[in-house]
Amino acid sequence: MANRRDFITQAGALAGIAFVGCELFPQAHAQVRRREVRVSGRRIKTIDVHAHAVVPEALALMGQKLAPVYAHATADRLKRMDEQGVDLQALSINPTWYALDRDLVTKVIELQNEKLAETCAKEPERFVAFASVALQYPDLAARQLEHAVKKLGLRGAAIGGSVEGAELSDAKFHPFWAKAEELGVLVFMHPQRTRDLDNRLKGNGGLDNTIWNPLETTLALSHLIYEGTLDRFPGLKLCAAHGGGYLPSYADRSDHVCLTFPERCAAVPLKKRPTEYLKQLYFDTLVFTPEALRHLAAQVGASQLMMGTDDPFGWTRTSVDHIFSTPGFSDAERAAMLGETAARLLGIKASRVA
């Protein structure tokens, strides 16, 4: 395994974050003029809620290696943002620490959140960040979230869609949900790899990503609905990656199971139909086609959608154009998806740029 110094050198990272240090490459960045996005002639501050980073030092603490996609992205991050017309990204780190013991994960999270805060302080017009939390210890996660928001200026939390096989609807996670609701911050949920379907996901097509990522999000949201978590914490602000997985595309089946087999929905009586909960959740726009985005908006409401790119993994470099090219949206709805909704939820003062 590479040592700590090797990780930092490989990343070429500013403030210990792999990818950000674009001022280390001023010539490369200076060649790209930032695309200015306008709606009805008004300059909109565009915000990407689904953008990843890592802290190489934290990976070293965990004995994990830096993925090549981060090592090679350093000089290109702001360039990609400028080319697309992305003014600001909300950075998140995908959890790889849910199996760690309490002492080690405390050190990892402290390091990650401090480095995220440092990076955002150096580039405040381009980055905000979601805090990392040790969700396997919900009481600790709640304290970490409060510290990150109140002391470090981070804007919410990034979590996985499960915790070592445990569903987020489990009562043991209530302290974390209660703290997120109390603070009024956005929680960004990204799928978390588990071993449950390993045999079924083998073979061509990268099904452990292609199928599993949206499937885990679908499962996580369904449990949060059916187990009453969203009733218990009605003020929770939760954003699901990848357009909410498969749930919005076949959501009405969630209602009809309770009509066809009412006994299957009787253990935890819900306050409203399952599909109605989708209208209190948020989703990124990473669904690839205009028809998919139109349908997602029709199911959950355009007010619940925020632009997402999944940078630096390259799933899309047309996130802004995706919103403009989808017919049927009003200018106000496009402006909201491009940045205004994210600005409100993330506490960013101005969603429009003069």
Mind explaining what this structure looks like?
There is one protein chain. By secondary structure, the protein is α/β, with parallel strands linked by helices. It has a single domain (4-346), classed as Metal-dependent hydrolases (TIM Barrel, Alpha-Beta Barrel). The chain has 16 helices and 13 strands. The strands form four sheets. It has a six-stranded parallel sheet. Strands 3-4-5 form a three-stranded parallel sheet. Helix 3 packs antiparallel against helix 6 (102-122) and helix 7 (138-150) packs parallel to helix 8 (174-183).
Query: Can you tell me the CATH class?
Result: Alpha Beta
Number of helical regions: 16
Radius of gyration: 20 Å
Give the N-to-C terminal Cα separation: 49 Å
The CATH architecture can be given as Alpha-Beta Barrel
Global geometry:
globular
Strand percentage: 5-15%
Tally of DSSP β-strands: 13
Which secondary-structure class do the elements indicate?
alpha/beta
Strand order within the widest beta sheet = 6-7-10-11-12-13
Reported for the largest beta sheet, the result is: 6 strands, parallel
Low-confidence stretches: 1-14, 20-30
Number of domains: 1
In the CATH scheme, what's the topology name?
TIM Barrel
- Helicity, in percent? 40-55%
- Indicate the mean pLDDT: 89
Give the ordered list of helices and strands: HHEEEHHHEHEEHEEEHEHHHEHHEHEHH
User: Based on the structure, what is the oligomeric state of the protein chains?
Assistant: single chain
In short:
The protein is α/β, with parallel strands linked by helices and 354 residues long.
